[in-house]
Specification:
9 strands; single chain; alpha/beta; elongated; 9-stranded mixed beta sheet; 10 helices; D-Maltodextrin-Binding Protein, domain 2
């Protein structure tokens, strides 16, 4: 069976998985996807990794279009994803409504599971939030940093820490067994990132790539997007 090569941010992994069977039935293609920190994924495309389609942040896709690596006319928004807090399944969820609540929650955690703080959307944001809260040094030794949010959440699920906490994109939390979405970051420290699909210039299966974009963004797929953690894109 033919395979469609997808390079994507980890935020879209759960959504893509939810439509894979439908896509295979409609097109005869399997989805061969690689998911990870968006900066790393963009650099893989720049380095020549085979890909028919990318799903990355809107800003990164726009940059790739400027670099003539994706087809500008194929660009379409999939949805917005919030960076959120996660707890291990069975642990008490947190009530975080302001900066003080967030600071106290992070200081109380004995292990904080996050994605790459240099190449991932959520990881970069976590690093910024810690700086703004003035606790980057205080919690630095407790940070458990992994290549992407999905890996960080799997380790959170399996950890034996007394008071662990996670922070990554809500879609990665929802898609991981053993962790639960605890809530959004408070106003002023929140982040909602728009993810966008585009066909690559090098695509050898452009029609199938377009079919996947159509499927992911269809009105009929609204419930699947919501279930995966995607919000409607603000006008």
């Amino acid at each position: 069976m033919n395979s469609l090569n997808l390079v994507s941010g980890g935020a879209a992994h759960g959504l893509v998985a939810s439509v894979a069977a439908i896509f295979r039935e409609q097109t005869g293609f399997e989805i061969s996807g690689e998911f990870g920190a968006v900066g790393f994924m963009a650099d893989k495309l720049r380095a020549g990794a085979p890909a028919d389609l990318v799903i990355l942040t809107r800003a990164l896709v726009a940059k790739l279009a400027e670099e003539n690596l994706v087809i500008a006319g194929s660009i379409r928004d999939v949805g917005m994803v919030e960076t959120a807090l996660a707890v291990r399944a069975g642990d008490a969820k947190l009530s975080v409504s302001n900066a003080d609540d967030l600071r106290n929650a992070l200081l109380a955690a004995d292990a904080i599971y996050v994605p790459d703080t240099k190449t991932s959307t959520a990881g970069l944001h976590v690093a910024s939030v810690l700086d703004r809260l003035g606790i980057a040094v205080a919690v630095g030794s407790r940070l458990k940093i992994y290549p992407n949010g999905a890996t960080a959440m799997r380790h959170l699920a399996a950890c034996d820490a007394a008071r662990p906490l996670g922070c990554t994109q809500s879609t990665e939390i929802i898609a991981t067994l053993g962790v639960e979405l605890s809530g959004s970051l408070p106003r002023g420290y929140d982040l909602a990132t728009t993810y966008t699909g585009a066909i690559t210039v090098q695509s050898v299966h452009a029609m199938a790539a377009q079919a996947l974009i159509d499927l992911l963004t269809a009105t009929e797929a609204a419930a699947l997007r919501a279930q995966a953690g995607f919000l409607n894109v603000e006008a």
